[in-house]
Design goal:
By secondary structure, this protein is α+β, with helices and mostly antiparallel strands. The chain has helices at residues 22-36, 53-59, 136-154, 174-179, 195-199, 213-217; strands at residues 6-13, 40-47, 64-67, 76-82, 86-93, 107-114, 121-128, 160-166, 192-194, 229-236, 239-240, 243-250, 265-271, 279-283, 290-292. The protein is built from 6 helices and 15 strands. A hairpin with a 6-residue loop joins strand 6 (107-114) and strand 7.
């Protein structure tokens, strides 16, 4: 069920249709997404060119789609989908050098999603950097480019921002440490709350692991398990503007003997908190209004 005062968001790398019996996997993925009933979905390794038929086959009708502009020679790329109306959509080019160009469809889509009150407009970022293991420098640069584009759009205003996608980096990597405020890069810093970490602080939550049979059959069978698919919520000075009520891995177990993808996806339930960050939960003398220390950024 949808969250009455919030959002159900999903990120899922579906594994390109040229691998592992796509017709069977497509049925499993479409059925699973229908049961999960998300409001916002970020899909990677899905065919987006020359048309979006493959996306609508997975999601069904009633979605607004914001595909990434770049795709591979086979038409595979990434797409952001919303049940709610989309406002402004921005495409961020993350190809800044020769090595970043080795992966043909890295990029970021930033879309305004107009949800009903009390949530209102949410800025949703579908981030897809390069995947190569030795390219963390490129992922660093791509994180800075995408995050600073968001900051420019915000212009200092306090708004809900959700970032999701296949980051091809675990929480210990410098690019993710930048997103989560654990380190600065290029003289800049931002801070986002990791939804999985909020819900499961002591659990690894690997989303790409040899425990998945399709990873064992794939081209990275010897890489240890990693949590590389992420859902992040932007922090104010005092914490995230949305409460993480739940974050779970999806498409973990095979259905009817079919493993959906070599990735496990993530589903997060994000909701408007009862009390905004930066407000003390105590009445002012002679009144009942909670006390805010300073204006939120």
């Amino acid at each position: 069920m949808a969250v009455a005062d919030g959002l159900r968001v999903v990120t899922f790398n579906v594994l390109a249709p040229s691998y592992a019996d796509w017709p069977a996997r497509r049925r499993v993925i479409a059925g699973g997404l229908a049961e999960l009933r998300p409001d916002i979905v970020a899909l990677q390794e899905v065919t987006i060119a020359p048309e979006l038929t493959a996306v609508t086959e997975l999601l069904g009708p009633g979605w607004e789609l914001a595909p990434h502009t770049r795709s591979g020679p086979d038409g595979v790329g990434a797409v952001l989908a919303s049940r709610w109306p989309l406002g402004s959509v921005h495409q961020v080019d993350l190809e800044f050098g020769a090595r970043a160009g080795d992966f043909p469809w890295s990029g970021a889509v930033i879309a305004e999603v107009h949800t009903p009150p009390p949530l209102g407009t949410v800025l949703v970022v579908h981030h897809k950097p390069v995947f190569q293991l030795g390219y963390e420098y490129e992922r660093e640069r791509q994180a800075v480019i995408a995050a600073q584009f968001v900051e420019e759009l915000l212009g200092g205003c306090a708004r809900h921002v959700v970032v999701l996608g296949d980051f091809d980096a675990g929480p210990e990597a410098s690019s993710l440490r930048y997103w989560t405020g654990r380190q600065s890069l290029n003289g800049t810093s931002v801070s986002y709350q990791d939804a999985w970490e909020s819900a499961h602080p002591d659990t690894a939550g690997h989303t790409f692991t040899p425990a998945n049979p399709l990873v064992g059959r794939g081209d990275m069978p010897l890489v240890p398990g990693r949590r590389i698919d992420h859902i992040l919520v932007r922090n104010t000075h005092y914490g995230p503007t949305l409460e993480v009520r739940e974050c779970t891995r999806i498409f973990v177990e095979p259905r009817h003997g079919i493993q959906a993808s070599d990735h496990y996806g993530l589903l997060a339930e994000l909701a408007v908190p009862a009390r905004s960050p930066g407000i003390w939960d105590r009445p002012e003398r002679g009144g009942t209004t909670p006390r805010r220390r300073t204006p939120l950024p």
